[in-house]
Amino acid sequence: MKNIPPVNIGIAAVSRDCFPVALSASRKNKVVEECRKLNLPVCGLEIIIENEKDMLKALDEAKNKNVNALVIYLGNFGPEGPLSMLARYFHGPVMVCAASEESGNNLIDGRGDAYCGMLNASYNFNLRNLHPYIPEYPAGTSSEIAVKIADFIPVARILLGLKKLKIFSFGPRPQDFFACNAPIKALYDLGVEIMENSELDLYDAYKCAGNAAEIKIISASMAKELGSGNNYPDLLEKLAQYETGLIRFMEKNLGASEYGIFANKCWPSFEKYFGFVPCYVNARLAEQGIPVSCEVDIYGALSEYIITLATLNPSTILDINNTVPYDLQKEAGINDYENNDLFMGFHCGNTCISCMKNYAMKYQLIMHRLMEPGIDPDITRGTIEGRIKPGKTTLFRLQSGADTILRSYIVQGEILDADPRSFGAIGIFAVREMGRFYRHVLIEKNFPHHSAVGFGHAGKTLFAVMKILGVSDIAFNQPKGMLYPGENPFQNMAC
Known about the structure:
By secondary structure, this protein is an alpha/beta fold. The protein folds into two domains: about 10-160, Rossmann fold; about 165-475, L-fucose Isomerase, Chain A, domain 3 (Alpha-Beta Barrel). Helices cover about 35% and strands about 20% of the residues. It contains 16 helices and 18 strands. The strands form three sheets. A six-stranded antiparallel beta barrel has the order 10-11-16-15-14-17. The protein has a five-stranded parallel sheet with strand order 2-1-3-4-5, sandwiched between helices. Helix 3 links the parallel strand 3 and strand 4 (about 95-100). The relative contact order is 0.10. The model has no long low-confidence stretch (mean pLDDT about 95).
């Protein structure tokens, strides 16, 4: 995948001047050694920070070593002023952790008290309004700290990606399908850039790519990828031209940003002028780490990109679409879940082929009903349809409302190996207590129908990132016995 920031971690040890500096240095070296055993992209900074001058030297060393994510390691109690200033002046994501004591036989000269030092460090972070990544339990042995640093890597990757991200949107949402529209002010609060464009700009990008040499190469790639599912070979060059136009537009307009994603108008006027639906191209770009959300869903595109960075797998965007009939559940042998734990995730056909169990290029049935009733499909062709592959999944959305306050939800579940017996890119999803989550989070908090879907469980990473970004409302599917605010406590009691 491209469009993904690399993560290069530096480990900076700190030492309070009344503690042995050698203790912090040796412990840091052990952590670096354990990280290398896990093949983590880390380097140890030589400077041990005892004061502000050391802090400035460490910043220079990190810059010279191309460090873009920093671990501040309390090998002993640590100087809370210089270490919190290091977090303040470092240009990228910061993690803070502390050394555990190593042996009951060495608790005089070998005792570092970093467990205590973390408390003072956290107080100083708050004074400076800093929000570094702190593991759920920040103390550990060298091998335990290495594992915590491994957890930090996807967190850092997301934060680095957002810092250099530009979202390209094309077109407004239609008046009668306005659900995913939201103010963009909160994007700027996150440091994300946005470039809003008209549908005419999108059409111009497509037309300008008409003679591109890439078209033949991309259409051949499409044919190979589709294999026996290539139902419309005559359509591939048009789709390749559209893909070329989008990539060229992004490369031309990234400006100061390094990473780009799209939120594009895709109906109803799109088909009339372009002559196809863009779903397959959206899927192909998602495979490359460039999500393209449907229906100008700007926060949907952002959510897709975040979950892509968390998992390093392509993501998709799906409607939380329809219930699963009782007879289908019974016939499929789904006995481990209640019916209201189940739903079908669906979209027209924008899920990339690597995330599908089976697939073929087809036409968009709903649009065909509207645009080409009673005739063979033409302008509504170009979807990728089939069953979404089974396995672990994470549903995620970061969303601003009319109040410009960011809210999010994170739900882990699974996509079942069961036939939905319907159309589109579709799968049967299972999430514990989904019925309650649907009512008391999705409906109660006015989340739109689109959800970013990741392939794999990424809840731990996403929750940590939301906290660092200052999102205070982070919803999840609460277990039985844990009531949502506003949930009726009497609903299941006998009269």
